[in-house]
Design brief:
Elements (H helix, E strand, L loop, with lengths): L14 H74 L3 E6 L4 E4 L1 H7 L3 H4 L10 H10 L4 E8 L5 E12 L5 E10 L1 H47 L7 H25 L7 E4 H11 L9 E6 L6 E4 L1 H17 L5 E11 L5 E9 L6 H4 L17 H11 L3 E7 L3 E9 L5
Parallel strand pairs: 7-9
Antiparallel strand pairs: 1-2, 1-5, 3-4, 4-5, 6-8, 9-10, 10-12, 11-12
Helix pairs in contact: 5-6, 7-8, 8-10
The structure holds adenosine-5'-triphosphate (ATP) and magnesium ion.
Length: 424
């Protein structure tokens, strides 16, 4: 930019010279103003251009911001959508990073393992306390692997799970972590075991029935000859008790054979109105087959009104007699036996009667619980191990169910559900 200098002109210059100089100065000033105006115009133009550019940039920025915001919203929508899918899955999903730290933990994984996402997110997988999870991630070594395990959940449930581990990779194929899929297969396992047990029972039943028939005939002969011998030895007090031993042994074997035959033949229950409140009271108070020891206290907690099941009273009497006998035998030092009946609906809305036989006895060890319904499984010196196997067959033939809850040293509870009597 040009700079304008104003100087004080001397007064004593000759007029002509003075005039000339003033003219020159005026010219100079004029040109300076012109330059100034020119520069101002340039400046104004530049400023306008700059303003235009700025406005354009502002618009561009606004459009970019809008686009970014839209992108962000879209990303958020996709994230929520995927999250909703993840949370709605009926299989458990756990994702861990390269250091096996949990980055994703869906609701079903929490239900299966008995813990919440809050307890697990950002924690090492090993800290969940479910050993097979961490072990499978370790052993999979970048491959997809599947294993079945029985685990104890954090809320102390025994659950069968099917676990699969697959590597998670970024678009370049680098391993970022592992995704674990969990399926609760407890129900499936139960059905499998039940199907196997039924098959085994049928085979054992057929074999047992064959043997029982073969043994019963000679056994009848032994009892007859022992009775004759007993008569002959009427005058011999030393030898007579020996024949009594033989007879009682034969009777015991006959009882076992009767149980075997009962177990072997598939029960075909008649369908009568069977008041379970009356039946239970009758067994404990008036049955010749049951004598309650003095140190066992019996409590009744029976459904108000009628607890009428559709069933075969004689078969159900055998079932409950065995449950009650087992309960009493599990309390050699005394305790309490609680008999409960309740009316209610099953999951499929069919009405049923629930009978609970609970004792405060020795309990059943966890490893024995799956065997107690097997024929010949007994922990008693004189037990046939057929009581529960027969009960299982009879209740199944009534379209009922038996469940057991037991803790060693605390007691056992058998829960039996039988369809209720229905007028139709
Ligand atoms: N209430 C209970 N408490 C503890 N253990 C039980 C109870 N009921 C059953 N059991 C266990 O289950 C096993 C099988 O019972 P089950 O009634 O089939 O045969 P058992 O009682 O041994 O023989 P039996 O019925 O011929 O006398 C028992 O030996 C016992 O170990
Ligand atoms: Mg028994």
């Amino acid at each position: 930019m040009n700079t304008i200098h104003f100087t004080n002109l001397p007064d004593d210059l000759p007029v002509a010279e003075n005039e000339e100089q003033k003219k020159q100065e005026l010219e100079f000033l004029k040109s300076a103003f012109q330059t100034f105006n020119e520069t101002t115009r340039h400046l104004q133009e530049s400023y306008d251009k700059l303003q235009e550019r700025l406005n354009a940039l502002d618009l561009e920025l606004e459009a970019k911001n809008l686009e970014l915001e839209k992108n962000l919203q879209e990303k958020e929508r996709v994230k929520n959508y995927l999250n909703n899918i993840l949370e709605s899955l009926t299989t458990g999903v756990i994702v861990v990073d390269k250091n096996t730290r949990i980055t994703t933990f869906n609701k079903t994984a929490g239900i299966i393992l008995g813990m919440t996402a809050g307890q697990c997110l950002n924690q090492p997988l090993a800290d969940t306390g479910i050993q097979p999870l961490a072990e499978l991630v370790q052993s999979s070594g970048g491959q997809t692997r599947m294993e079945d395990h029985e685990i104890t959940t954090r809320d102390q449930r025994q659950v069968h799970i099917r676990l699969s581990a697959s590597p998670v990779q970024d678009p370049a194929g680098h391993r970022m972590g592992t995704v674990l899929i969990l399926q609760d297969i407890t129900q499936l396992k139960r059905l499998e075991e039940e199907a196997q047990r039924n098959q085994r029972l049928r085979a054992m039943g057929e074999m047992a029935a064959g043997i029982a028939h073969e043994i019963r005939n000679p056994l009848g002969g032994i009892e007859l000859f022992a009775s004759m011998l007993k008569k002959d030895l009427a005058q011999d007090p030393e030898k007579r008790p020996l024949t009594e031993h033989i007879i009682s042994g034969v009777k015991n074997m006959d009882r076992i054979i009767s149980s075997l035959l009962l177990f072997a033949k598939s029960p075909e229950p008649s369908r009568q109105q069977c008041n379970l409140n009356h039946l239970l009271k009758d067994i404990v108070n008036a049955s010749a087959d049951f004598q309650c020891p003095d140190n066992v206290k019996i409590h009744h907690d029976l459904a108000v009104g009628e607890a009428v099941a559709a069933g075969d009273e004689e078969l159900l009497r055998q079932v409950f007699l065995n449950f009650i006998r087992n309960a009493v035998q599990a309390m050699p030092d005394g305790g309490s036996l609680r008999l409960t009946t309740q009316t209610g609906n099953t999951a499929d809305s069919r009405s049923h009667i629930t009978v609970t036989v609970a004792d405060t006895g020795v309990g059943i060890a966890a490893q024995d619980q799956k065997n107690i319904f097997n024929p010949f499984f007994s922990t008693k010196d004189k037990g046939t191990g057929l009581g529960l196997a027969i009960a299982h067959n009879i209740i199944k033939a009534h379209q009922g169910t038996i469940d057991v809850e037991s803790e060693t040293g605390q007691g056992t509870k058998f829960i039996i559900k039988i369809p209720a009597w229905d007028e139709n």
